[in-house]
Structure formats: C-alpha cells, structure tokens
Amino acid sequence: MMSRSPRQLLAALCLIALVVLRAEPRLMRLPFGGREKLTRGFAGYADRTWPEYPRFLQGVMTHTTPGDRVAIVVPAMRWDGGYSYAYYRASYFLPGRIVLPLVDSQDRMHPENFQAATCVAAWRSNFPQARSRVAWSGEGGVLLRR
Amino acid sequence: MAGTLIAILTLTVLGLPLALLLDRSARGPLLLGSSFLDGSGAVFLLLLLLSILHIPWTLLSVAVAALLFWVAAWAGLRVRDARAPAPPGLSPQPRFHWTDLATLITLAGYGIYATAASLWEWDFWAIWALKARVFLEHGGIDWRFLESPWNSFAHPDYPLLLPLNFDFIALVSGSWSDRWLGFFFIALGLALLLIARSLVAAESTPFVAGLMTFALTTIAVSRYVGLSEGAMIAFGGAAVLFLRRAMLLEEPAAWRHGAVMLGFAANCKNEGLALLVAVGLAMLLSEPRRWRRLFRLWPAIALALPWLLLRATHVLATDIAGGSVSDRLLSRMHIAPQILTFLSARLDEPGFWVAILAAVLIAPAALRRRESFVLLATAIQLLFYIGSYFATPHDIRWHVATSWSRLTGQVAVPITYSAIIMLADLVFARKNAPHAEARSEQP
C-alpha cells in the first residue's frame, strides 16, 4: 500500500468533507416523495397574508385597459404594514397599467397620485364612491372609474 | 409547461452555431451546455436590439430575428471551416461514472423543487418577472416604467438578460405564465454542470470528475428560483472556469468562451459587472507580466457596454450609488469590526467555507499558484460585495440579511472547482490523471 504524507491525509479528509458538505439530503430525498407537500407549501407562499388579493387584481386587470392609472387602496395603508406588498403585487398583476401608490416607504401620503389616477382599486376597504362609478366589483373589492 | 420546454430547446438550438463559432472542437456536454447559455445570451441581445429599433416584440418578429441570427452564425461557421479545418478536440468526452448517479438524483430533486409551484420569491415578482411582464405587455423595453420614480423598487438599473429570457419564453408559450419558469433555472444549472464536467474531465480521472460534478451540483443550481442568481451563477461560473483553462493552457477557444460568458454575466446582475472587473484584476495580479492578455476580454466589455450606455442614457440610478458613497464608506470605517463580525455570523454554510479555506491552506504553494487566478477573482469579488455593505444607503443588517447568502452563492462554483482539483491532485498524486496538460509541476 502506498504511504501517504500527513498533508495528503489532511487533503483526503478535506476532500471528503467538501463533498459531504455539498450533499443536500433534502433534495436527494425529493425524487422519492414529498412533491405534494412542497407544492402545498409554495403554492400560496407569495400571497400567504392575503390569499384572495391576486384574484381581485386579476379582475382589475380584466376591467382596465392599457394606460389606465390605477391607485391602490387596501386595509393596510402603512408601507411595512402591508402596503408595499399590495403595491408591488398590483404592479406585477397589472402590466400595461400605471400603478400609483398612495403611500411611500416613509409612510407619507401622496394625494397627487390619487388625483392623477383614472381608476381606484379598493380591496376590503370602505372607500367613498362619490364622484366615481363602479366599473367592476368582486373578489372582496371594487374598481372605481373616475 | 410545453411552451417553456420548447423555448429552452429553441435557446439551445439558437446557441449551437454561436458555441461552435467560439469553439469549433466543442462536442458533447460542453457543446450542449455552451449552446444553451449562448442561446440565452443571444436572445437577450436580439430582444434588446428589436427594442432599440422600436420593432415590437411578437412571436413573428422575434422568430425572424432569431432565424436571421441563426443563419448568419451558420454561414459564419461554413466560411470559417472552408478556410481551415477544425483542430482536434482538446477535451476528452466525459465518461459516465457511478458517482454521477448521486448527481442525477440531486438534479432530479432540484427539478421537483424548482417546479413545485408558481415561482414564489418576492424578488421574482417584484423585480425580475415584473419587468418581464411589463415589457411583454408593452412589446419591448418600457423605458417609461423604468424611469418612473415610483418603480425604483424594481431596481430599474439592473441588467435585463433574465427578464428578456422570461419574455422569450412567454412569446414562445403564447402568454405569460410563472408556473413553469422553474425549468429555465434547471437548464441554467445543468448547462453549467455540463461545462464544468467537460472541463474537469480534461484534467482528471472519471472518479474525480464525478465527485467534482456532484459537489458542484447544489451550488450550480440556485435555491432562489426566479431570481437572476441562477443566471449569474451559470454565466459567471462558466466564465471563470473557461478563463481558468485559458490562463493555464493559452487555449484560444477557452478565451473566447470565457470572455463571452463573462459579458453575458455582466448582463445578468450588477455583480456581473463587478465580476468583469474582478476577473481583470485577478488576471493582472496572478500574472502581471502577461497583462496584455487583458485585451482578450474585449468581447466581455463589448457585451456589457450596450446596457451600460442605455441605462446611462435613461439615467437609471443604482440605489447603492445614491447620495454620497464616500461619506457612507468613511462614516462606517469605525464600525468595520462589527460589520465583519456580523458578516461572518450570517455566513451561509460556514462549514463549507471553512473546508474551502482549509483546502487552500493544505495545498502546496505550486498548486495555489496554479489556481491563483480563481482564488484571486473570488477574493476580489467578495471584497467588492463586502465593500458594498459599507457603502449601502440601506440599513446594513437588513442588507446583509437579505443578500449575503445569495452573493456568496454566486462565487461558490469556481472556488469549489479549484479547491477540489487541488485536493484531488494532492491525494491522488497525479498518477491517475490521464490528461494533465493543465498542471504545473508539484514540489
């Protein structure tokens, strides 16, 4: 048997450690079961706080046209309290529309965006409907055209 | 699902003549992996060009542009091959080894993970896919969207290789769907593994090549499915590995592959631009007397320039460069120990990085010298990342918590490759390495 120097032995140990540390037992188990659990976990992950909100946004998408300026009203009107999610998610679900936030990251209100909006998408909010007409309602919200 | 798979196949076919133009001797896994990555990069350039020319993106316009590109690339191949016969292939074809079974099982597991549901990551739908959807609806890059101050959350300055690839998939599929985009990330990781496997097969035994591929699998694929990390790992990793080979063997095809991949990496993320600089510095520092080799990176710079010019023209600000960077850097110098301690505490998989460090320390000086390019490129890139935390306008703890594991993951493939090849050389003492052309003498 070939003799090994201490450095070679250390190298062998290090090589084994590197290969073992790079193994991912969870990934290696997946082909043998667990896909359903994973799917359940990830399927609603993005909208885990407000699972119905994407369906409302899809309705807004259907009832608006490219170029519409849409202001977003949700129960959480604080940036880190849920408004950032609502605004970003609306931007994703309403491509071609100009989504306008009514609150910024410093929690400052932006009435000028409300003035500039042609539509207000209000979800789970008692938003006053004066001087607007209901373009569509459903999925827990209302789309007002001004 | 079918649309995404057809799009991936189309990208591979599109990239085939480009990969052969760069390396006429490429065959097998190397050709397959390079073709997909080159096709992905080519589609990005085609969509960018159509947008600049104000030609709306439709399946027809993109198909015509892709066909023209493909025919031109094949014509270029024919002309070149008529002038001179192809040189013999430098890379032996990788052979299947029993260790590959573990790699295949891991890849299958990743495939299940990446396609378990519609992509779920916040940055996927708030940055990368958001832009793709907006551009798809617009029929090209929507500069109004990028320039709007209300959309700064989507990081308008980020390069667009990934969103434009999403758009290509949507055009081929007939509509937008985020359900099966995970396949694209499997393809990115697989492409990098095919390239790495071919490169290691050229300098080691099938057993070491199998071990290497298995060890690289979980870092070649990104756990952040839907983010540009997957693309950055694939293009950046392939670039550094090709350039390593080029530095060691002075192989023209490896230079070309490496430079092109580096250019595409610069179009994946801003970190890709940093990698371009890190690679240049590493080349210079590892062999200062051969500084002229830097000119071989011209394709990378040429590929990075269009987006840099466009984003400068449209004044798309980078958040990290906002305000006074120097003031922030200076003001945080006195808390450098705390920042570094926090970074080490938040290091993802510390055992792995300790093993990498141990490998570098255990290796004889000659092996370290041989791998100096990869070691330096990785170290410099990590320094850039750490520097960005000193310069960030955001809360440092938040910034580290949300990005450090992704950033270290971006540089893991090349350094792991170098670490394993050094250790394998030492353990097996070269005697079972049939293709040792990349090696220098060990003491």
Report the β-strand fraction of chain B as a percent range: under 5%
Determine the oligomeric state from the structure.
Answer: heterodimer
Poorly predicted runs of chain A are none
Rg of chain A, Cα atoms, Å: 26 Å
Average of the residue pLDDT scores of chain B:
92
Total strand segments of chain A: 5
Give the overall shape of chain B.
Answer: globular
Q: What is the overall number of helices of chain B?
A: 20
Mean pLDDT of chain A, rounded to whole units?
A: 91
Distance between the termini of chain B: 54 Å
Greatest chain-chain contact? A-B, 42 and 55 residues
Q: Treating each run of at least 4 consecutive H or I residues as one helix, how many helices of chain A?
A: 6
Could you walk me through the main structural features you see in this protein, from its secondary elements to its overall organization?
By secondary structure, chain A is α/β, with parallel strands linked by helices. Chain A is about 40% helix and about 15% strand. Chain A has helices at about 5-20, 25-30, 35-45, 55-60, 85-95, 110-115, and strands at about 70-75, 100, 120-125, 135-140, 140-145. Chain A starts with 5 loop residues before the first helix and ends with a strand. With about 450 residues, chain B is mainly α. Chain B has helices at about 1-20, 30-50, 60-85, 100-115, 120-140, 145, 160-175, 180-200, 205-220, 230-250, 250-265, 270-285, 300-315, 325-330, 335-345, 350-360, 365-370, 370-390, 395-410, 410-430. The relative contact order of chain B is 0.11. Chains A and B meet through helix 1, helix 2, helix 3, helix 5 and strand 2 of A and helix 4, helix 5, helix 9, helix 16 and helix 20 of B.
